Amino acid sequence: MIKALLVVLHLSLVSLLQMFSVVTDDVTIVQTVPSEIKAGQEFTVEITIVKNDLTGLAKLQQDLPQGFTATAGKTADATFTFKDNSVKFIWMSMPATPNITLSYTVKVGENVPSGEMYLGGRFSYVKDNERKMASVPVKKVAIVNEHPEKIDDAASLTTPPVTGEAVASGGGTIEASRRLSDTEIQPGSEFTVTVEISKSQVAGYAKLQETLPKGYSASQIETQGAIFSFVDQDVKFLWMNLPDQDHFTVSYKVKTPAKMNAGDKIDGAFTFMENEESKKYVIATSEIIAGAPLAMNPPADNNGGNEETDAPTETEMPDQAAADNTNTNKQDVPTETASAAPPVQPKTTPPPPTGDNKNSGGDEKKVTGIPAPQQGVIYRVQVMALRNTTVSMSYFKDKKNISETVNQEQHNGWNKYTVGALSAYQDARNKRETLRNVNQVHNPFVTAYNGAKRITVQEALMISNQKWVP
After folding, report:
1. Of 99, 104, 372, 434, which is most buried with the most CB atoms under 10 A?
2. pLDDT tens-place string over residues 20-34
3. Is the pTM of the predicted complex or chain greater than 0.85?
4. Beta strands in 212-327 (DSSP E)
């Protein structure tokens, strides 16, 4: 008898839950609101999310009509905001508990007319690196205004049931472009892909997806707060909320296979939501041009020595390049391809620089060793990075028409070459542009030092209290 009663009770609860909740494969959502409320009064919205073992990023959003305001109640460790009539609970990491209970208080304005308000919403979350969404069950709340003389003619109740993610108002625009750090890519090497995104009146959920050829692999560099994944040759950046700035860049590092194929390319698209609809901006295809593996022979006067070298490409400094590459057409990653390779000599330890040193060509200036320590913050412009090789000053003077002192330093396994010692970032930025446009240096970029320590440009700007200049 008792067992039968328990079965009936269980079935009754299940039926009740199905009547007042929305169930997906992952979550069950129950919303509780009063059926009627008077203008000028407050009421409580309570939402229970049965999420089981889901964790990670998530967002609950509900939209209120004009004349309604909301204040936080139970947040379950989420960040609560109320802006532009949208209530949002945002988790960077949801609590580990299987159930979440949220609440907030709604104040109905005195000038809100009598009518019906439909309160729904959506719960967005990430599972297996994919964005998913469940709708909050729509509830109808009757609004009664007993003082029609206080009603604002402009006020209205316009909150139809919501079934999708509304993240942008009409007129939103997106532009996106991709650039590769090298014009020719060597098999078995690495290069950097940077995607620039410009947006207007677009916010909330978005996804950047790029498809790489078979055999290539990718790892994240700069994500701008997105979740990065690389699965089945697809590179994905997933945002629950896009960055606030209208222009930003993301980047990732690509490792090429030992054998590259003609026609290898990168395709991609930026997907976002606007007016309850998913929209896609297709990014132009980037062809991957394969170059011959670099095996550069030194000139004949190097005693017949021969040393195979790595491609003189630097990709390990995304933080510095990102601060210095906005609004330019090239990635600020120094690259010298085989077709423009300088004379190479076996790696040796250069003698300490002295004021009397002259090179064999009679030049009074030459590549120095590690730059002398400076006091405070200074900016230089990097013009080249080589692994396992060094170059003489004659290359920079003869090929690039750079007659000033070029500093050489060892950093993260690279021989890096820089010019200048400037206290103002603006001056370093101008020097970078001169080297790029006049001296035809491929992708120079600004570097920064605090004393003898190499730091990021962002750190240098903060320390020296200067502003970044595009």
Report:
1. 104
2. 444 456 789 999 999
3. no
4. 217-222, 227-231, 234-239, 247-255, 265-274, 277-287
